[in-house]
Specification:
The chain is mainly beta. The protein contains one helix and eight strands, in the order H-E-E-E-E-E-E-E-E. The chain has an eight-stranded antiparallel sheet with strand order 1-2-3-4-5-6-7-8, with no helix packed on it. The relative contact order is 0.14.
Amino acid sequence: MMLLACTLLVAQNARQNPPAKPTGDYSGMYSFLQDGEFVQLTVEDASRVTGFISRYGDLESDRGAFLDHFFKPGKLDGKKLTFTTETVHGVWYEFTGTVERGPGKNPGDEAYYLLKGTLTQHSTDADKKSLSKSREVSFKSFPQDLGAGPEKQN
């Protein structure tokens, strides 16, 4: 009888207090400022963020070359995302914003998630003069292949 009462009590509590749903898996590739450039985002342990920005160089010495700006560990707090990159050729980035659902209809669709917020580009010129430029951005998630469908048999 005691076992039955405990079972009913546990079942009742489970209905009243369902387990919290995990946040979406926001890891993946997102657009960046120009076509061909991207942000690779990896969410680890639900709050630690790693990744990099891959962009075209725009200085005389690196014009057209791909430059990878790796994140110093970033942070995801709920849907609030922040990261800062390492400096490459005198340039580094800071992002402060959110991860939001975009217009993509299904997981794996383009723009299923958006990174929206403020991107600040910091640079240091040859005279060691620091400059910074901020802008509001919205980066779309790239489409993903969520697994191959059934293979055709011959």
